[in-house]
Amino acid sequence: MRSLKITLPQRNTRQRDVILQELCRLTSHPTATDLYDIVRRRLPRISLGTVYRNLDQLAEAGMIRRLEAGGGQARFDGNIEPHHHVRCIHCGRVGDVHDVPTLPGAGDVAAADGYEIISCRVEFLGVCPECREEPASGGGRDRVDRGGRMSRDG
Amino acid sequence: MRSLKITLPQRNTRQRDVILQELCRLTSHPTATDLYDIVRRRLPRISLGTVYRNLDQLAEAGMIRRLEAGGGQARFDGNIEPHHHVRCIHCGRVGDVHDVPTLPGAGDVAAADGYEIISCRVEFLGVCPECREEPASGGGRDRVDRGGRMSRDG
DNA sequence: GTTATTGCAAAGAATTTGCATAATC
DNA sequence: GATTATGCAAATTCTTTGCAATAAC
To answer: What's the pTM value of the predicted model, to 2 decimals?
Structure first.
């Protein structure tokens, strides 16, 4: 078994610091460009490339989670506690879900296929509270992660 | 609640027919370009755009599943029976997993967030049998869906 | 002072789209 | 024959990368 290489950042930069701070402050699972817009309020000269690079590094170091919620843009989560997500098929918003039965975890082997399982992610598709009332409008909360494509997945 | 619009294809074309046939024949969860290469053996003049368009339509009509396995390219599955997937973090291969505990399903409301749940997908990350023996080589089976980016997700 | 990291801009990969042509109903 | 679907190519979108300048150690 090859070990997964974990590349830790080697220098502390203000850019990475602000990116991590802002991501951890949010519960909205922003995309890279969402975060770019937010971080730019504090670091107007930061580039989108730097945001991507740092999000990669932080995810690889296990300090944040990358969601790839399905539907194009990756989303990021500053909360690394084990939990799952629910994505609104109307407005694209992503919420947290904690009460999910325990699923096979690290070390288990999926009998039928012989895969050694390392981790698992669950994504629910549903309709968020706002879209349940006011379909497809996107609502009016102070969130940064509205928009995003609707799923066409089953 | 707005109803989800389902756009059924309105005419039967040989292209769509072959795409569906070939996808249902495979258990390898091919990407759009994988399938393009396969279908082209029977329809040499088909275009990649047509493959994308038809995969979209078929997924929207519920005749196939779109996986968006996380990590770039979407993958497609001709098997629409409820089941979940496991993706090899070394070679990118995607397998099926059937024995997963029942999770909240259609109609349930995720208490903590108020989302109405419509469906759910579970993706395991793991190491496939071949990569467990011979790390990261990609093995030598007759599959079309080798390759694909490694996950950096937790 | 050395070297990782940045900003910028250009490249890349995956997917979508406009439009004339071809095929289905 | 009317209109949908195709093939082709260009456009979009999201992400990555090369490189000189900058900042961290």
So the answer is: 0.81
Contact call for B114 and A97, based on CB within 8 A:
no
Q: Could you tell me if B36 and B50 are in contact, meaning their C-beta atoms sit under 8 angstroms apart?
A: no
Handedness of CA A21, A27, A33, A37 (dihedral sign): negative
Dig out the tokens for A82 from the structure: 């084990």
CB B112 within 8 A of CB A16: no
Domains of chain B: 1-80 (1.10.10.10), 82-154 (3.30.1490.190)
Q: Is the dihedral of CA B105, B73, A88, A27 positive or negative?
A: positive
A98-137 pLDDT, tens digit per residue, is 877 778 777 777 655 788 888 888 888 888 888 888 654 4
Contacts of A119 (CB under 8 A, 6+ apart): A105, A106, B124, B125, B153, B154
Our measurement of CA A49 to C1' D17, in angstroms, reads: 9
- B70-118 pLDDT tens trace: 667 899 999 999 888 888 888 888 899 887 777 777 777 665 578 888 8
Phi and psi at B95, nearest 5°, equal: -115, 175
The pair of three-digit structure tokens given for residue B33, joined into one six-digit string: 């370009």
SS (H, E, C) A18-40: HHHHHHHHCCCCCEHHHHHHHHH
* Residues 13-32 on chain B lying near strand C, CB distance under 7 A: 13-14, 31-32
Phi/psi for A122 (5° steps) reads -120, 130
